[in-house]
Amino acid sequence: MATRSAEIKAYVVPDVKAQAADIYAHWGMSLSDAINAFLVKSIDVGGLPFDMRVSARPRYNPATVLPVDPRWGSSILPADMNDDEDDIYAQLVR
């Protein structure tokens, strides 16, 4: 492997840097190692090595989500979800 001697300088939000450093440290990588891996993979695939999407997380309308039940934790089921075959959801809505 060639010696890494070229420098890249980037400005990021301190919290983002710290969180990313923690994630990569878990895998035994420095941020420099992670950035190098990102660049090598970008060259390998001919672009960004991941899909770009507006939002990878599902969005929920709070008005359609069941209220939180402290006995079971947070609920993410839509309030209008109903299964005619059983009464499992009826016990969640009070």
TrEMBL record:
The protein's name in its UniProt record: Type II toxin-antitoxin system RelB/DinJ family antitoxin
Species per Swiss-Prot/TrEMBL record: Adlercreutzia wanghongyangiae
InterPro entries registered for this protein in UniProt: Arc_rbn_hlx_hlx (IPR013321), RelB/DinJ (IPR007337)
Pfam families: RelB
